[in-house]
Description:
The protein has 276 residues and is mainly α. The chain has one domain (64-271): MetI-like fold, CATH 1.10.3720. 74% of the residues lie in helices and 0% in strands. Helix 4 runs parallel beside helix 7 (139-163). 30% of the residues are buried.
Amino acid sequence: xxGRMAIxxxxxxxxxxxxxxxxxxxxxxxxxxxxxxxxxxxxYPPSLIPRDWTIEPYxxxxxxxxxxxxxxxxxxxxxxxxxxxxxLGGLAGYGFSRxxxxxxxxxxxxxxALQMFxxxxxxxxxFNMARAFGLYDTYIALILIDTTxxxxxxxxxxxxxxxxxxxxxxxxxxxxxxxxxxxxVSVVAPLARAGFIGTGVFxxxxxxxxxxxxxxxxxxxxxxPVTVGLAELFGQYSIQWNSVMALTVVATLPLVVVFVLVxxxxxxxxxxxxxx
Length: 276
């Protein structure tokens, strides 16, 4: 019996390790490619480990002011969109969770339908609206669009998380003299911290990776995020693959560090409400 369990566990660990290697291999190959000179990237047979290590792609990108601007724009847009998503999604999710609304089911389905709406269909309307309201090539336009596309799922996730928090805790706070808003801020919000962190990371990554609207609603590095800067490296006749990989590594590394630090809260926030 013990031998069977050991064999089963060994097979399970082996399968997990194989899957992890398959998933991580493209990322590892991309990171190592960023340290290769261009001729070695196209050499045959290809090599995983660089033969001639170079940091020229990193120094070339980090020394250019336009790419520094791309990063600052990306952080500003993503953080602002995340704050709006968490704030508005928290209020909406709390309302759907705690109040009896006559059309709550229809409203929730409508919110979910917004999440499934294809963004490409809205390119021309958003462009015309941005020009009409004077928001073209501004941070506000990109922040509002990123918030619009992430907010439905954030609302649903936070609503599920609020459902898992006992109502009796708020009722006790209300009996003690707290207002509904005070009970939300002082009692519910601290208990829903994992949900806020999980949905906040999702909203941040969603805004950080947005490219289509950032491309059509900006005219250069003044307001555009790093995804637009990455597209500049893809030329008509040539692609600077080592620079592409270097910029991707620099753009991804902060997100990986944040995810590792808060992964427990992210998993708890996303899976909350799945089991009652």
